[in-house]
Amino acid sequence: MFQKEEECIEQAEELLSSLLRGTVAEKPFGDLLDVARKLLRQSRRLVTMGDRMQAQLSSLNDELNHMARTDALTGLDNRRQFMEVARKELSRSRRTGKPFSLLLIDADHFKSINDTWGHDVGDRVLRDIASLLNGAVRAHDMPARIGGEEFAVLLPETDCREAALLAERIRLAMERHIMLVEQAAVRFSVCIGCTTGSGQEKGLDLEVMLKRADVALYAAKKNGRNRVERYPGPDCLPDCPVAAAERVRHQGEA
């Protein structure tokens, strides 16, 4: 930038040296060159300032985008980002026919932890759950905090068996984890609802997938907590109203 302007000034200096030296035009022409040099220096400073401002604005924009899709407490993706990526995965499944799975995860007796140890410890539990999730899932999976003590994991190109195995690995990681609080050992566990679907399935959308995972999560809580339940599967409770509604809907589609 400004290369042409610099070349023009250099040519003018050569003209001043060769043709105007000692003439009446030497001084005014020299003054004009001084003004041109000052303007060029000021232009460079303005461009540098503009580049810095642009870099700062770009960095701020990146930070705002990160904040918009990230849970501030745990550093995981938030519900909005999870839903956006999950819808894209459903669209991809429709194109490829490959299955994908969802996990819904809820911390057991979280209110009791807050009541016993305080909200600071409750926040530590949530951060530890996030850390354990990151350590248990695969590189292409997507863990997220979707609200309160509830988490979700998107498992691309994952069938029901793989999803159940991964869910059990997550459950065990939580069960075995020990958090020290004032020299006391604090343990926690989670319920996990697991479901698998394919874009080839008639009438399937993300809301249906989440409802199925929630049915399985309800079953895990009902059956004693600290466990994994799958939907569809024999462990889904027949008296669960959401499960019953799902069965009626699918019977109507058959």
From TrEMBL:
CDD domains: GGDEF. Transmembrane segments: none annotated. Signal peptide: none annotated. Its EC number is 2.7.7.65. It comes from the Bacteria. Pfam families: GGDEF. Residues 98-233 form the GGDEF domain. One of its GO terms (biological process) is negative regulation of bacterial-type flagellum-dependent cell motility. Gene3D superfamilies: 3.30.70.270. This is diguanylate cyclase.
